[in-house]
């Protein structure tokens, strides 16, 4: 029986996918549920499992864009699995030894053949080598080319008029280095990311406001409680839980930031689905923490870890990346000091985190060294005014600089569930 394997729908609104890589070859025997291909959609990379066991015939090439529901391969379910081959050692391996000896002889013959090929001997230099004819000398002088930089093709190495005409003047640029180029096709996911970034720049009135955060209070809390937190919850107490809960608090104070434009209307949400930008093997992915307003520090850290691992392993689903009302991007893990993050449409705001650096700051009239992080809020100025955007970022800053009171209600152990 010949089974036609069709492209399944990876998610709502996705009409085509791209064959990123075949994991088997034409004519291979495959087992049921074996991953036979990786397919790219505009939202994620997914594995395509075999629907039955049998011999496979491929009907699409790597890089082909195929419609959802199209046939990409055939599986002959009547084919029998190939018998496994066993190695015969000891004296029974005589045939293998003969093959190895023959290969060794052929390699030696090839090596001897290469050694016997001698490079053509260079022409012997004479008094005429590198000497330009009168006509050639005039041309070289007009071009500003030194005769010693030109290889003569005339008798005894003399530089002819043609050599001078073909000589390229040096502009002082070093030569001899590798100047190769390569070209590769962008994945469908990367192309979609590119389209969305351009769309965000072209269709939103994007503006960015900046501030700085003294991370000392969070450092102190993590230093004091991170070991107990990890021992009890089996997850690290990182920065993302503080930032996520600080953002949730600020979104409640400034609901316009938790809104988006829908035609001629502004759509506001009474929940906080926080998208977190993570780097996966296929590029940037933005999974969503659902209803972050209902999560504790442990809940946020557990969800961040779960989503990051699924993105890294290529197991993230379209549903896990769909939606989101606000985005947090942490460029600091790569060493970014400051940036202007691009809005993730149709959202209206994105918070950029950056690296933490010890900087001199004025505290009560004195200069002190504090761990400082620069933060940036990019927002759609069409529905978020300057007052709201600045107020939102200040609210985030206040919560991060006073987390015990504003994020933990002065009950640290209860908030951390210790």
Describe the structure.
This protein is an alpha+beta fold and 418 residues long. Among the domains are: 2-76, Beta Barrel (OB fold (Dihydrolipoamide Acetyltransferase, E2P)); 207-415, Chloramphenicol acetyltransferase-like domain (Chloramphenicol Acetyltransferase). The protein is 31% helix and 24% strand. The chain has helices at 94-116, 134-143, 161-166, 188-203, 216-233, 240-253, 297-312, 318-321, 386-401, 403-406, 412-415, and strands at residues 2-6, 16-22, 29-30, 35-40, 45-49, 54-58, 65-67, 71-76, 206-214, 259-262, 265-268, 274-280, 283-285, 288-289, 326-330, 349-353, 356-363, 366-380. The strands form four sheets. Strands 9, 12, 13, 14, 15, 16, 17 and 18 form an eight-stranded mixed sheet that branches. A hairpin with a 2-residue loop joins strand 17 and strand 18 (366-380). Mean pLDDT is 83; it is low at 85-94 and 116-123.
Layout of secondary structure:
Layout: E1 2-6, E2 16-22, E3 29-30, E4 35-40, E5 45-49, E6 54-58, E7 65-67, E8 71-76, H1 94-116, H2 134-143, H3 161-166, H4 188-203, E9 206-214, H5 216-233, H6 240-253, E10 259-262, E11 265-268, E12 274-280, E13 283-285, E14 288-289, H7 297-312, H8 318-321, E15 326-330, E16 349-353, E17 356-363, E18 366-380, H9 386-401, H10 403-406, H11 412-415
Parallel strand pairs: 12-15, 15-16
Antiparallel strand pairs: 1-8, 2-4, 2-7, 3-6, 4-5, 6-8, 9-18, 10-11, 12-13, 12-14, 16-18, 17-18
Helix pairs in contact: 6-7, 6-9
């Amino acid at each position: 029986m010949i089974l036609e394997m069709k492209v399944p729908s990876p998610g709502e609104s996705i009409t085509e996918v791209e064959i990123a890589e075949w994991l088997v070859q034409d004519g291979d025997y495959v087992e049921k549920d074996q991953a036979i291909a990786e397919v790219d959609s505009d939202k994620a990379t997914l594995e395509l499992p075999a629907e039955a066991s049998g011999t496979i015939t491929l009907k699409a090439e790597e890089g082909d864009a195929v419609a959802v529901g199209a046939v990409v391969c055939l599986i002959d379910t009547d084919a029998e699995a190939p018998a496994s081959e066993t190695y015969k050692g000891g004296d029974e391996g005589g045939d293998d030894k003969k093959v190895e000896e023959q290969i060794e002889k052929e390699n030696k013959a090839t090596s001897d053949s290469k050694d016997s090929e001698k490079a053509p001997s260079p022409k012997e230099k004479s008094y005429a080598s590198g000497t330009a004819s009168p006509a050639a000398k005039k041309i070289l002088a007009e071009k500003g080319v030194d005769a010693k930089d030109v290889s003569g093709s005339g008798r005894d190495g003399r530089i002819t008029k043609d050599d001078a005409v073909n000589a390229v003047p040096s502009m002082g640029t070093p030569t001899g280095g590798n100047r190769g180029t390569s070209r590769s096709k962008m994945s469908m996911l990367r192309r979609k990311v590119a389209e969305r970034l351009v769309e965000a720049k072209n269709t939103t009135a994007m503006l960015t406001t900046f501030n700085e955060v003294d991370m000392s209070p969070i450092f102190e809390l993590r230093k004091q409680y991170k070991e107990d937190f990890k021992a009890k919850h089996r997850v690290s107490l990182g920065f993302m839980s503080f930032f996520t809960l600080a953002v949730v608090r600020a979104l409640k104070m400034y609901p316009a930031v938790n809104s988006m434009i829908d035609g001629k209307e502004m759509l506001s949400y009474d929940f906080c689905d926080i998208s977190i930008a993570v780097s996966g093997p296929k590029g940037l992915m933005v999974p969503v923490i659902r209803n972050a307003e209902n999560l504790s520090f442990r809940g946020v850290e557990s969800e961040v870890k779960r989503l990051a691992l699924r993105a890294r392993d290529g197991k993230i689903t379209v549903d896990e990346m769909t939606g989101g009302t606000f985005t947090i991007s942490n460029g600091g893990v790569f060493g970014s000091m400051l940036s202007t993050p691009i809005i993730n449409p149709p959202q209206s705001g994105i918070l950029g985190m950056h690296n933490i650096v010890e900087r001199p700051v004025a505290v009560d009239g004195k200069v002190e060294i504090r761990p400082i992080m620069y933060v940036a809020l990019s927002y759609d100025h069409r529905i978020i005014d300057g007052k709201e955007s600045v107020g939102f970022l200040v609210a985030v800053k206040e919560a991060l600089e006073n987390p015990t009171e504003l994020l933990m209600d002065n009950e640290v152990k209860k908030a951390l569930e210790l």
